[in-house]
Hints:
This protein is an alpha+beta fold.
Amino acid sequence: MSTAPGxxxxxxxxxxxxxxxxxxxxxxxxxxxxxxAVQFFVGPQQIFLFNHPDLIRxxxxxxxxxxxKSRVLQRxxxxxxxxxxxxxxxLHKRQRRLVQPAFHRERIGxxxxxxxxxxxxxxxTWRDGxxxxxxxxxxxxxxxxxxxxLFDADIDEEADEIGVxxxxxxxxxxxxxxxxxxxxxxxxxxQTMRFRRSIERLDRTVYxxxxxxxxxxxxxxxxxxxxxxxxxxxxxxxxxxDQQLRDEAMTLFLAGHETTANALAxxxxxxxxxxxxxxxxxxxxDSVLGDRLPLPDDYPRLPYTEMVVAESMxxxxxxxxxxxxxxEDVMIGEWLVPRGAVVVAAQAVTHRDPRWFPDPDRFEPLxxxxxxxxxxxxxxxxxxxxxPRICIGEGFAWMEAVLIVATIAQRWRMELVSRDVTPxxxxxxxxxxxxxxxxxxxxxxxxxxxxxx
Length: 453
């Protein structure tokens, strides 16, 4: 039994501000300096970083029963309640059983029509040569998709307000890492009040839709209908209360909107920087689709486009880290993780490890060809997590990202107005301040030089 190496400091909370403001460079540095297992302290809190696929597998798969979600995510119950992201043990198992049918392959195929229709509608609003914040555009698009597929609702009139509320929650999420978070959120501070108003704004929309749907009793073919009809046949035979529906809807609403929008924004950014990959993708789209809009059945026929999205999520994973709290002493590899320790596995670090991804700062979609994937450990790449708590909407997200990229790329290419784009690690990995891009028709696009990021 060994003691994991790591940085030491006589200043108790020296690393707290770094973890709140710019954690990815810190985790990258200590992984490079100390190896696959690193430990450090923030005050009395012991924190481990595991950066080898075998250790990550033990954390998320084989030893998962020894861990709960970390305290940061436990504090996020103020947003998500007891949804799938935050609930534990029997409640989590029950809720996952109830939610799972909504994400069966056949059901997701029906949602694909919405994804294509909304992307086609957006692309018609753009004009050749105009500059758009592509992150803002993708946020609006995925909000529209998730509202329609989750609630069968068109929220165009409320979209700006809801988008502001969601952005506010994401921006304020780092405050939950503060050891005094539970105290701070009870005080009438400006950021606390903004946090509360954002949750109340989202709750108004979610509860009003749940109430309307309960009264109508209609099955409208959306996720909410599935959740309303769900019965726990393996357990207590009951369904979901309004509170449980709200918690799951809020989790799916934020996760389905935020993470996919970020994945799409980073994809457009990387395609603009890498013209050879963009050309290869357009050749595939021309060959498979021609001039017609994509269909749901086209998704498996666009392997290179899917590899583009996969490589984008390797370089800029929307969920950039997962963390767990040890609920008992447990061995991970040769390392003893004591009860109460926090363990982090950071996709943003592991996905750029040159052992698994040579020349990791280079954008190369062919890393995700079948043979290339088989040559590396499975959990060298885990954009949606792993194990029993792997993201339940993974299939939905892959289909949405690929079909949206295909639909928009048929009509437009993107040119960066400025390469000065900074990742911001909060609850997700966002481009700080957005990404300003010029939308151009394929024939008028200027070809930049490829570069690493």
